[in-house]
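User: I'm putting together notes for a lab meeting next week and I want to include a structural view of one of the chains we've been expressing. I don't have a solved structure, so I'd like a prediction I can at least talk through. The sequence is below, exactly as it appears in our construct file.
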Amino acid sequence: MSSGDYGISDFKFQVSTHYTYRFDPIRPLDELMAGASQLRRRDYHRLNEALTIDTNVAPCDFADLHAAYIASKRKQDLLPHEFIVRTCTAAIERQHGLIVGARAADRTLKAALFTAYDAECAYMLMLVYRQSYSCIV
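Assistant: Thanks for the context. Below is the predicted structure for the 137-residue chain, given as structure tokens.
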């Protein structure tokens, strides 16, 4: 067995799944929001007033925001900029990826998430935001 044959659990990492929200993505936004808690609806409306959603965030811009996020945490970046760009670009080109961003009035990217999906489900793989933007958290 080569070193590449080991799974995550072989290194004593715990593997689990956690859902924050789970819903049928075919349903209209109004119907989804009606099912959310009052706190989540208030957060949504507050953010909706302050930010604009951008579904065309460039992979390079997403990778730049990721690098800024990691730097703000004073952590070592384990995902090189070029790796993030290549991964996001490949998924988007194959119509199995989407980067959604939140922009302030000055068009500054304040938060973004990268989602990969297939015909059955979607996975939010990365979420990054500017530490200095208190409206996000």
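A couple of points you could mention at the meeting. Confidence is low (pLDDT under 50) at residues 1-6. The helical segments are 29-34, 38-50, 59-72, 81-93.

User: Perfect, that's what I needed.
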